[in-house]
Amino acid sequence: MDLAIATGIQALTGIATLLLISLGLAIVFGMMRVINLAHGEFLMLGAYSAILAVQAGVNLWIAMLVVAPLCVGLLGVVVERLVIRRLYGRMVDTMLATWGLSLALIGAVTMIFGNTVSGFSAPLGSVRIGAYSTSGYGLFLIGATVLLLLAVWAVLRFTPAGLIARGTMQNAGMAAALGVPTERVYALSFAAGAAVSGLAGALMAPFSGVLPTMGTAYIAKSFITVITGGAAMLAGTASASVLLGGVNTLGTFATTPVLGEVLMLAVAILLLRLLPQGITGRFFRRAL
Amino acid sequence: MHRRTVLTAAAGGLAAPLVFRHAALGADPIKVVGIHDASGGLDIYGKPMVATLEFAMDEINAGGGLLGRPVQLINYDPQSNIQLYTQFATQAATRDKAAVVHGGITSASREAIRPLLKRYNTLYFYNTQYEGGVCDRNCFCTGSTPAQNVNRLVPYIMQKWGKKVYILAADYNYGQITSKWVVKYFREGGGDAVAVDFFPLDVTNFGPAIQKIQAAKPDIVLSALVGGAHVSFYRQWAAAGMKQRIPMASTTFGGGNESLLLSPEEGDGITCAFSYFQEVDNPANAAFLQKFKAKFGAGTPYLGGELAMRTYVGAQLWAEGVRKAKSIDRMKVIEALESGIGVDGPPGRTVLDPKTNHVTLDVYVAEVQNKGFKVLQHFPGSPPSDTQSVCDLQKEPNANKQVVVDVRI
């Protein structure tokens, strides 16, 4: 029984991790159809913002939950102004530009901080579950992810800004004809996506260590999750995270870490063969 | 994603060759090339190794150089990237025409450049503790091997903690082979391994592994994990509250400056065996550390376990070989080295074994204490018996291989 609970928590942590690292990408892709190849670097910059803030004496929680999303969100505004705005509707060009941005960011961070691993320890100590113990921070990660998902959903579902955002997402031309400043909606969406990525990177930092190339470890996984999820931004990412994160963690338990990853990729490939439009192309079609 | 490494590689490649010139000694310098990862995931080992190699070369030059010539050290930084290893090794052999190459940290990097340097007839020193079995007259392995370190570590921890071990190892030749040795020594002592798990070098999430360990209920956890990413295992282990419940030993922890990366609460008590620890208490070590600190000042790296010290000793052994051969000709130096050269230094006495080109050395068992080590046991004069059992370069001078020692378990 204890083992089942401990394993369940571990699986939930894996799912939360995947959801967390994919959500920012899903917002940008879902809202704007922009494929942001610099997504991994947004995560990385979130982690660096947090670690620098901690080193500067800022409280750990403020560094992770406030400083990191703020810094990366601001960067998102700048990137949207300078790069993304000029390339709307040109998907391949956007990919190329954001890829260049990702290389530039890795290079810049490597030059400033060096190609070396830094990190800070997870707060919150450990939690006993019968004969097992697990890290309290893992549980916090699960809770934070659920809250973040709910917050994004509530904003989109219940606020006027969310209504405008959804309208722009569904039919930008019509929204513009009704007087919605679509350019500003896009700019804010991109900044929001970047801020969520920054937050995710900071939350992952105590687990993963922080280095300039850490984004590369995440970007493939987050893309697979978003694509497997399909058109519905939140429901898609969440369902894909549950499926792939669950398979990965349980596969790792049953076999080895390598086979766990292989199993997850195999499931993603199989799924895209059966459901080319992603999970939400078939199920939860009317969800957000 | 290779494209991402391309840019960092290109940028680093331009900046990498740190050339140290010694104008004081006028003659044509003897070129020594060092190839160590001073950046990337392995920099926790590489940076101190670069420092000790610089120190050794400065010391040689301060003593008048070798054969009346100064030595010139050329350092390359392969950035924890195997491709750059082969590139820099080729450069060292063909462009720099190095008298000797010191370098390689992981066994994977060694096996990338060892055959290459043999082909180019360039003398090679590998100064890292590793899994044993390299049989190549051109390659001198000056670090300790499982018959020297694991052989001492396992009886100590079994006697102290119990007979059931859970092994976590890095997923490449070092981890694969070393974990077999650990199992062998545990079985010889009447114990056994409940499980062996392997992790690629970029794995950072050890959550599932930690739950599996709890389910298996071992007496001891033994880590043969490698590099900066794997350091997160020790953090997660402590965060899960496991440190108070199951004691840990490691064949790799503290080889570099891992102990500095963890807080005392996370690190204290991890038990390791190496052929040197910075805390080894003898006059030679005290004198060395004093001079070392004088050179690097506030930036003095912590040496931890043996990797950096073995690099220093490797450089000393090579210099002894050159002095004895009165030449930097590769074969003459090899023959001089194989005449049974030894040096006394901070880790104790190191003697080259002409049969295997490995070394007989002192081994220490120590535990992490307050970001450093506390030395618990000292075993002088341990021979590399694992490699000796499979390699005889006197009989087979043309051997060029790594024999995987058939660990009978």
From TrEMBL, chain A:
<keyword id="KW-0472">Membrane</keyword>
<feature type="transmembrane region" description="Helical">
    <location>
        <begin position="34"/>
        <end position="54"/>
    </location>
</feature>
<feature type="transmembrane region" description="Helical">
    <location>
        <begin position="253"/>
        <end position="275"/>
    </location>
</feature>
<dbReference type="GO" id="GO:0005886">
    <property type="term" value="C:plasma membrane"/>
</dbReference>
<keyword id="KW-1003">Cell membrane</keyword>
<feature type="transmembrane region" description="Helical">
    <location>
        <begin position="186"/>
        <end position="211"/>
    </location>
</feature>
<keyword id="KW-0812">Transmembrane</keyword>
<feature type="transmembrane region" description="Helical">
    <location>
        <begin position="6"/>
        <end position="27"/>
    </location>
</feature>
<comment type="similarity">
    <text>Belongs to the binding-protein-dependent transport system permease family. LivHM subfamily.</text>
</comment>
<dbReference type="InterPro" id="IPR001851">
    <property type="entry name" value="ABC_transp_permease"/>
</dbReference>
<keyword id="KW-1133">Transmembrane helix</keyword>
<keyword id="KW-0029">Amino-acid transport</keyword>
<keyword id="KW-0813">Transport</keyword>
<dbReference type="GO" id="GO:0022857">
    <property type="term" value="F:transmembrane transporter activity"/>
</dbReference>
<feature type="transmembrane region" description="Helical">
    <location>
        <begin position="223"/>
        <end position="247"/>
    </location>
</feature>
<dbReference type="GO" id="GO:0006865">
    <property type="term" value="P:amino acid transport"/>
</dbReference>
<dbReference type="InterPro" id="IPR052157">
    <property type="entry name" value="BCAA_transport_permease"/>
</dbReference>
<dbReference type="Pfam" id="PF02653">
    <property type="entry name" value="BPD_transp_2"/>
</dbReference>
<feature type="transmembrane region" description="Helical">
    <location>
        <begin position="137"/>
        <end position="156"/>
    </location>
</feature>
<feature type="transmembrane region" description="Helical">
    <location>
        <begin position="96"/>
        <end position="117"/>
    </location>
</feature>
<protein>
    <submittedName>
        <fullName>Branched-chain amino acid ABC transporter permease</fullName>
    </submittedName>
</protein>
<feature type="transmembrane region" description="Helical">
    <location>
        <begin position="60"/>
        <end position="84"/>
    </location>
</feature>
UniProtKB/TrEMBL annotation, chain B:
<dbReference type="InterPro" id="IPR028082">
    <property type="entry name" value="Peripla_BP_I"/>
</dbReference>
<protein>
    <submittedName>
        <fullName>Urea ABC transporter</fullName>
    </submittedName>
</protein>
<dbReference type="Pfam" id="PF13458">
    <property type="entry name" value="Peripla_BP_6"/>
</dbReference>
<keyword id="KW-0732">Signal</keyword>
<dbReference type="InterPro" id="IPR028081">
    <property type="entry name" value="Leu-bd"/>
</dbReference>
<feature type="domain" description="Leucine-binding protein">
    <location>
        <begin position="29"/>
        <end position="372"/>
    </location>
</feature>
<comment type="similarity">
    <text>Belongs to the leucine-binding protein family.</text>
</comment>
